[in-house]
Design brief:
The structure is a single chain. This protein is an alpha+beta fold and 258 residues long. Helices cover 23% and strands 34% of the residues. The chain has a 7-stranded antiparallel sheet, sandwiched between helices. A hairpin with a 2-residue loop joins strand 4 and strand 5.
Length: 258
């Protein structure tokens, strides 16, 4: 299914002229309604709860929607254009991960940034993280790996109680060539034992990113990609030319920044 989701209106005039950006989302992902209006979000979350828990009760669906409502509201306020999550059963063990996509201004004064300059800025923040650059199909991007401690909601734990867990995160900052903007893709998972699965999946996803700049595309030279893609973090990004297979087959295309 092809879906178009507008970029953050707060970005200003550049949002209307930004290149169309598409990527493929694994069909196992449920989509959070960050594109709905505030009045529609509650009902959309009830419908999502029914998809996630088809054997559930109205009470469970309402409780789930109430739990997710502040999360979705926070994402909408931050300008998230796409948000999806998966709930997998891996040999009887539940596993989950979340993926988001956001359009950002690179810097307040509109100065265009490169992957290297973004990586240098991220590395200078002093956080406990690993920062590097990587070549994707759509061009060079900055990548940041971090790990935080957070409280996992009761409905996502095997014990049925809130639990503090380590959450692994990957953020990919892809500068757009014609505008002073960045496409930000983020993955987070509290299931660190499945880190390899999700990091492989995520790099397969961001390697499906395509930019379509319309009539002006021929006037903008594509960045030259090295013959050998570098390794990134605990796993290597998928090489599309090598026919690498994602852990979950990617099918549906999302047009998020039209």
């Amino acid at each position: 299914m092809d879906t178009m989701i507008p970029g953050d209106a707060s970005v200003g005039p550049s949002a209307a002229t930004a290149p169309r950006l598409t990527f493929r989302v694994p069909p196992a992902f449920f989509e959070l309604p960050v594109y709905e209006t505030e009045e529609q979000v509650g009902q959309a979350l009830i419908e999502l709860a029914q998809d996630v828990y088809p054997q559930g009760t109205p009470e469970l669906w309402f409780q789930y929607a109430a739990t997710q409502l502040p999360v979705v509201a926070q994402m909408m306020e931050a300008g998230v254009s796409y948000a999806g999550f998966c709930l997998l059963d891996l040999d009887g063990r539940r596993s989950t991960a979340t993926v988001t996509a956001t359009l950002l201004e690179s810097v307040p004064d509109g100065q265009k940034m490169t992957a290297s300059s973004v990586a240098a800025e991220l590395a200078g923040l002093g956080e406990r993280s690993q920062v590097e650059t990587v070549w994707l199909t759509a061009g060079e991007a900055a990548v940041r790996f971090t790990a935080d401690i957070t409280t996992l909601p009761a409905e996502l734990t095997d014990s049925g109680r809130p639990e503090e867990v380590e959450v692994g995160k990957i953020a990919v900052f892809l500068p757009l060539r014609r505008e002073a903007e960045l496409a930000l893709f983020e993955l987070s998972t509290p299931c660190m034992q499945d880190w390899d699965l999700y990091s492989d999946l995520f790099f397969n996803l961001v390697n499906t990113v395509e930019l379509n700049e319309g009539e002006d595309q021929a006037q903008v030279p594509l960045p030259q990609q090295p013959e050998h893609l570098p390794q990134t973090g605990p796993t290597a990004p998928a090489d599309p030319a090598g026919g690498a297979e994602a852990p979950l087959q990617t099918k549906s295309v999302r047009d998020v920044f039209g």
